[in-house]
Amino acid sequence: MKKKLITAIVVCNGVLCDAECVAQQIRRADLVLAADGGARHLAALGLIPDVIIGDMDSLDPDLLDRYSAAEVIRHPRRKDKTDTELAVELAQDRGAGRVLLLGAFGGRPDHVLGHISLLSRFPGILEIRETGMRIRALQGQILTCIDVPPGGLVSLVPFPEAWGVTTRGLEFSLNSESLTPGTRGISNRVSGTPAWLRVEGGGLLLCSRENGFD
Amino acid sequence: MKKKLITAIVVCNGVLCDAECVAQQIRRADLVLAADGGARHLAALGLIPDVIIGDMDSLDPDLLDRYSAAEVIRHPRRKDKTDTELAVELAQDRGAGRVLLLGAFGGRPDHVLGHISLLSRFPGILEIRETGMRIRALQGQILTCIDVPPGGLVSLVPFPEAWGVTTRGLEFSLNSESLTPGTRGISNRVSGTPAWLRVEGGGLLLCSRENGFD
Asked: What is the pLDDT of residue B3?
């Protein structure tokens, strides 16, 4: 029998903004994992994760004691992956077809870069959610909808470059063009629906947010 | 006559930590540019940039008036590049052989990604400095020293992947191995000097910090 694909949330140890919005997302998720010190964010929201995973080097032991209702998976400190990557792998093992990373930004800068790198390890599965923005990795030949209403913000960041990029429904259109390293694709705006994006090859980070510019 | 290569600092509109350390770096630089709203950080430190560049959409007009001693380069709002990219290009045009980006993290997440993408547009020239960490892009075949004392933190983030990676003087060594998307290269530590890194091909972000783990 095919396993049912579920939505999981991994809470990382970076900075968590928009507490109320985050709490709503967490309540809607099928599976909630805290990557080590990320558990502190859940504690602050009065929520209990299903699983706490990591080497527990950034988690207050008192907090761990308080979370007796959560499953705790402890990894050795000398390991090949960060706690976040272990959490995403576990979510996938438990049937997650979609994994949202919260608190991925704002922590140690190399951890932020690691979280971004993870996106392209799990394209189509993993998303970063950050201050109302969705960040996804697109790789190779792909066609995707940009499900944001007119006025919404869209940024395309080459990772490290993409070719044959075509967009429709955006204020600045691309017509089978290449995006090379740089900031050319930042701060576009949805002008009509349906907005969509086609890429022939390479890699791209697609950032979208329902509300427009700051 | 060959132009003298100078060190420039570009202050972005993200979050600026370590005010005192930042002020020292700025005082040592040959050329200081504020990318639009980044000027607010300089104002808070009581410093005047040589140049303010951008579309001025994120800068308080009163602040701009106060900066009559600075050169102001105003670009149209509808443009192909962010204010930060324009600032880095200008720094290079004015002879900068090294450009340090401050305040690159902590702002809008797509801007953070754009700053990271810029690193690989200017490898060997551009560096992000963030909470004591240096972040540089390495591309193609390269050998570089990791000039950090024993105990210092080193993270290697594939961007999006690198092959033939060899390290020496680090706690966890790599021997002509590939780094694929993920977090395997995060949180290494310098164990002996000289520490160095060789890459045969691909792309990599090298993060280093003199002091070790948080």
From this structure: 60
Cα–Cα distance list, B145 to A110, A153, B57, B166, B198 (Å):
19, 40, 40, 12, 9
Indicate the helix (H) or strand (E) that contains A85: helix A83-93
Mutation target among A113, A126, A174 for the B interface, most CBs of B within 10 A: A113
CB contact under 8 A, B118 and A159: no
Q: If phi over 0 gives left and psi between -120 and 50 gives alpha, with beta otherwise, what is residue A170?
A: beta
| Structural domains present in chain B | 6-131 (3.40.50.10240), 137-209 (2.60.120.320)
Token representation of residue A177: 């063009």
Inter-chain CB proximity B114 and A155 less than 8 Å: yes
Digit-coded pLDDT (tens) for A76-131: 988 899 999 999 999 999 999 999 999 999 999 999 999 999 999 999 999 999 99
Distance from B180 to chain A by nearest Cα, in Å?
A: 8
Q: Is the pLDDT of residue A1 over 80?
A: no
* Contact call for residues B77 and B55 (beta carbons, < 8 A): yes
Percent above pLDDT 90 for chain A:
86
| CB within 8 Å: A81 and B184 | yes
Work out the minimum CA distance from B134 to partner chain A, whole angstroms: 9
